[in-house]
Each structure stands twice: as structure tokens, then as C-alpha cells.
Amino acid sequence: MRIWGKVLGVFFGFMFGGPFGALLGLWLGHRFDKAVGGNFAFSAANSQAAQQAFLFSTFAVLGHIAKSKGVVTQQEIQVANFLMDQMRLQGEARRQAQDAFRQGKDADFPLEEQISQFVRAVNGRRDLLQMFMEIQLQGVFADGVIDDSEHALLKRVAKALGFSEPELQAMISRWEAELKFHRHGGGQRQSAQSSAKQLEEAYQILGVSQQDSDQQIKRAYRKLMTQHHPDKLVAKGLPPEMMELAKQRTQDIQQAYELVKQQRKSAS
Asked: Could you list which ranges are Periplasmic topological domains (predicted)?
């Protein structure tokens, strides 16, 4: 129950208008508390709806892209299950995710319509849309490559989300670099050849080049960290179950930035 509007209304009303002012302040404060409470309830309901739409759309679109080659591979099923494991989906929540994945595999699955509903549910928040797209890329890269049918579907998904083809290609490049970065040790000490590859991949993860200044690289790093901050994403509608995915992204970005910083410091 919210009472601070009433308390402050009575206090200031009495100060400036005596007993009558206090009564008027009480009424105005009550209206204020009621409005704030209503807005909070509305926001909470919106957030829950956004989280449900995010979960369903994520696995439905994953299923649709996995089916694009005609046969859903075992690796793609494993990736879907791995994501569910990371989110600790159990019981009814897991069954709903599995059902969404199956629905997405239907030939008549309304891809653009489903994505349009999802975009509306999250109010078009670009960082949430980017996180959604990156999860789809994680599913596509289950077998290590993107074939023509998957790439065509990814372009449809990106367009429905409001991303241009160059933006999609940049995300694909970053995700490819991230996978290779992990394979090469994720910033751990390696051979000279592996270290050179890691450094190249670290720049790609950050979306910068070796010719960029330290300040440009720091700005790119901070922007990526803000876009993938788990708490901020959850506050905007990311399902809490997906926090672990966002945390992994921020860890990779952090490791890439530290590697670039260390190399530049030693080279100066």
C-alpha cells in the first residue's frame, strides 16, 4: 500500500492552507498513490508478458530455422536442450519451450507474424532484439556453419526485428569470432600463433579494428557491456532464466577487451 503521496499531501496542504488545505492534500495524495500503484501493476504485467513472449519466440524461431534444411540435426536439438539447461527450465516451463520448438518446425509457422508480436511485447527495445538475434545465431552455429537456407531465414528474422543486412553480417562475424575465441582458449596464454588468432578474434568480438584508437575501443567495449548487462536486460523484459546467457556474453566481451588492452600495453 502506498501512503507517501497522502502523507506529503497532508503535510504541505496544512502548511499552506490549514485544515482545509490538509484535506485537499490528502485527496490529491490519494490520487497520486493510486496512479503510481496502477502504473506499477501495468509495468509488472507488461514485463511478465514480454518475458513469456521472449521465451516462446526464442524456441519457436530456433525450431523454424533448424527445420529450414529439411531435417533437424542432432546438434541443433542438443543446442536447444543446452539452452534450456542453461536457463534451468524444468517441468511445465521446459515442456512449453519444447512445444514452442516443435511449433516452429511446422511448415506453415507464421515467422514474421510471431516476430512482430514479440517486438510489440518488448516495446521494440533494441538490446532485447539484439539478444534474441544472438541466441538464434548460437542455434544456427550448432554444426559450425551457416548454409544458404539458414542464412535466408536469418535475413528474414533480422528484417522482421528491424536489423539491416550489414547489421546482421556484423553480428554473424562477432559470433563466429566468439566461437573461435573459445576454441583458442578464451584469452588464456597460448602459443604465438594461437595468441595472434585470439587477438584478431578479440577485435572482431568488440567490433573494432587494430587501427582504431584506445578511446574508440573503450567506447565500443562499454557500449557492448551496456547492451548485454544481465540486470538491465531482465528489467526490460529478458526472462530471468536467460540471465546466464547474458552473463556469458559479458564475460566474453570482458575477456576480449582485456586481451586487447594487454597487447596494446605491451606493444607501447
From this structure: 1-6
